[in-house]
Amino acid sequence: MSASTVPAPRPPLRVALAGIGVVGGGVVRLLEANRDLIARRAGRPVEIVAISARDRHRDRGIDLARYRWEDDMGALVAADDVDVVVEMIGGADGAALTLARQTLGAGKALVTANKAMIAHHGLDLARLAEEKDTPLKYEAAVAGGIPVIKAIREGASANEIARVYGILNGTCNYILTQMERNGASFAEALAAAQAEGYAEADPTFDVDGIDAAHKLSILAALCFGTKLDIDAVTADGIRNLTAADIREAEALGHRVRLIGMAERDSGENGGGLYQHVQPCLVPSDHPLAYVPGALNAVVAEGNFVGRLFFEGAGAGAGPTASAIVADIIDIARDEYGPAFAMPVDSLDQAPAADAGARIGKHYVRLIVEDRIGVLAEIAAAMRDAGVSIESLIQRGGDDEDSVIIVLVTHEGPANAIHAALGILAASDHVVGTPMHMPILAL
Amino acid sequence: MSASTVPAPRPPLRVALAGIGVVGGGVVRLLEANRDLIARRAGRPVEIVAISARDRHRDRGIDLARYRWEDDMGALVAADDVDVVVEMIGGADGAALTLARQTLGAGKALVTANKAMIAHHGLDLARLAEEKDTPLKYEAAVAGGIPVIKAIREGASANEIARVYGILNGTCNYILTQMERNGASFAEALAAAQAEGYAEADPTFDVDGIDAAHKLSILAALCFGTKLDIDAVTADGIRNLTAADIREAEALGHRVRLIGMAERDSGENGGGLYQHVQPCLVPSDHPLAYVPGALNAVVAEGNFVGRLFFEGAGAGAGPTASAIVADIIDIARDEYGPAFAMPVDSLDQAPAADAGARIGKHYVRLIVEDRIGVLAEIAAAMRDAGVSIESLIQRGGDDEDSVIIVLVTHEGPANAIHAALGILAASDHVVGTPMHMPILAL
Do B283 and B254 meet the contact criterion of CB atoms below 8 Å apart? Predict the structure, then answer.
């Protein structure tokens, strides 16, 4: 080719970073380490021009002296030489939200890893981005380094998605894998996760399914073209799981995983949207059963493509930085569009489907006193609540006086299980809290 | 928002389809079935305006009467009302290549599922697309419905990729899975695959690894920013695998998969690019070991994101159409860039690395006569070739007079294995062709 066909080089994309913790440090390292490669792929250099965080003098193990420091985050937005602000402050509201609004309001591009903020304020932010015709990108908010936002927003864009589900919280998956391998209790596995840095001192956000709920609400909006509705997501965590549940699941050819699932109701119950985070039994011939440790994985089922499965690191400095910088490169390439694939005003408002009406097989585990008549009492409660039993196993419990009863039901609504357990709650012979989990249908 | 901020609706994107076989039929069905959804996601309607194929009157099970028919494919390019030509003719050269050149030469967008054409002529076509500033998209050419081109080109774009590898041919994976489950021979499993429609009457392209080689060369160019070089890809197929190999691999805790792998040489051997398709032993704790039937899966290892794993349908009308229409939607959104992520002239020219110098553990299987001294002969050949043996198993063979010997080597170059087998080729006691496969390192 002649030299005359080479286009003029594009000016650098100038990036400001807000919040330099583990992830922010990862972004600095990545942009430095892969600088030349990124310039080639983005078609222009990507340069950090300014940084802001709470504490300038904290030792972060990286040299930030070469970058301009701003004590006031607002100065990143006001600066003439900033094209993109990367928000890594965290929290649904407060400083993160203020910065996000200022950035988009000023017509600058916003990249964020903040799942809580997107789950709660994503629609408002997307609307603001549209008004100002500026990018809002959040690949790192769901499943860390896995490019699942892009895979669904663009890769699967030709498909009507029937359901989207997956392992959206690495902390819980690490705990479940520990319980599986060592026969550990939940408390022991949690302590191990905390020791390894996979769980926080206060693990509520992770183990109660709140973090997964944030991510699920974002996936649902993208998959179904609906308005983000975090309040419609119900979440049950993994605190009530026992070592016996993990063992019994295994005996049934399954593994327990905390699954966030969003699905269009079949229509009989009003055609709403089901969004639930809960522990499930995953059949051993499903790829989610093999997702180990702190990994994340997402499944999307499209009406033409069939089942797509994506797996990778769901957290950590490197993977999260990878997703953030991928967003920055998209912006550098001018390859972006509406944050939720279509303008906010054209997203549907889907009613929440009744999770209790959802049909499926269930696992139920009870610990009961070892005495005559208890099994009859359970069988009667199931019958009276309309639960049809496919199989039942009784085993010796952890002490002499109790036995474990595990049932697998035929297909039926979750509400019937709740009703049966409501009847049994009045029994003097049931010990502790029963556990019930849906069995994932292939 | 006030009505005044709503942008004017964009005009439809007008698509012409060339070649209406299984895949073309899938594209017509998809664009019809998901019409409204696609218009919402693309920001504009996508309309088929013209169709061309060899035989107008063949029964394809779909009504094509509503679309303009052109006997001459060139008329699709010449038509004023065509924005995008979708090439589904197939073949590296001939009519497909002529149409591709005409389309890009006319400044129109080209979408293709043609892996052979991209592998052989992708660079020339990409250069033509750049000159004319028009899109060239080929998501369907690699791994069918899995959006792996997008995941690597964009999702993992922040990373230096250390290696990319995967199951790129569903026919071979179907055959290997059959052999695994039923203890079938290669010939029996191939016949089953042909009966199920997973293999062609002449299976050469699939079972000899040629199809996988085409796809691998495309992935390598994208991952490493190098010029496509199909001639540098070496391919060994699965014809020589026996039921015993599958069984022995299983006994070693592995499964046999046909793996296409591209990797940067460590530098000691010149820093070239290794591109090889061959059967490998995959450890049972690697996700590729669980990819069943005709599915495809791709792994990319990035220096920040770590290991990404993508699985889905690698062929078939629906999945291939999904990938083709995703490309069309990207074009409708104006979200596209250089075909290989950067301009052709800035791609590196990487020398081919010497596959034989590659270090790894190997599986070697020999069938030998059951007599004194044979084992000593094998051990001597390995020693003389510098192959260090980690483990060795001898079992009774399929008949009374022979035994199977399976060795696993310590890490060493493939060349040493070739040398040892070269020495043993002269032996009167080795029966049939020995098999050797690398063991995939995690």
Answer: yes
